[in-house]
Amino acid sequence: MHLCSGIMKIKLLLSGKTEEEYLKTGLREYEMRIKRYVPFEIVEIPALKNAANLSFGEQNSRECASISKRFLPGDIIVLLDEHGKEMSSTEFASFLNKQFISGSKNLVFVVGGPFGFDPSLKKQASSILSLSRMTFSHQMVRLFFTEQLYRGLTIIRGESYHHE
Questions:
Q1: Alpha-carbon distance 131 to 137, whole Å?
Q2: Cα 150 from Cα 34, distance rounded (Å)
Q3: Does residue 3 belong to any structural domain of this protein?
Q4: pTM of this prediction?
């Protein structure tokens, strides 16, 4: 496998702010590590205002509309959803590598809020991936995903971080 780092940028869109300091620290650590391999950006989309006055469906719809505004033409959009396709770390590395060699400019991973993704957003996605059959808080998924992204990049490069 190889890594075409000058071609593709990876972006992680997060709905709302990361709350816990330990998660912020972990995210910063993996963000720094990932940037050694590819251009990488974490974008926190502000939480909805007055969300308590909205139904779950309305919150979900508005949140997804706010996320969609961040997409650029040609983006490869990958949603992280508990009902998505599961992959091993090496399968995820292969998935990443295929995206790198596809010639696309931006690979955008999205972590939604606690109510998941609106069907309209799922239609825009190239892929929907799950980190586990277990359910994790949308806050924890941020850290788990960045670690897996880093792990995938080291697998592509043949480095010793991942052990099988």
A1: 12
A2: 5
A3: no
A4: 0.90
